[in-house]
Amino acid sequence: MTIKWFDFFPENPSNPARTDMQNGIIEINRQAFNLLPEYTRRFVIQHEIGHYVLKTLDETKADDYALSKMALKDPYSLRNHIDSVYMLARDDVKRKQHALISVLTVMAGLGDKEAIELLKNR
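^ thats the sequence. predicted structure below, dont judge the formating
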């Protein structure tokens, strides 16, 4: 996979990145991408790689791919994952809920009792 930089995407100026599914080129909208926090920038790259690797247009699957590559690698990575999805998903409530459940699942897998209870009661 390679990255190709654009000054902006005229058809979607707020979108920080997209992936050409045919050839695996990640296209970055420098104008939007540069406004993102560092963790979210790395999340966007992993998310786009997820689209290509998984051969999917499904945003939640690409989010989960990014989470699988980034979770617990940095302090506050789980919180930053949720923040990144919330920032990028805008009005997509289902995507935001999915991010919360995915993070709770990671926490439950680590034995977090509150996360286990929250998942049981959802």
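The first strand starts at residue 2 and ends at 6.
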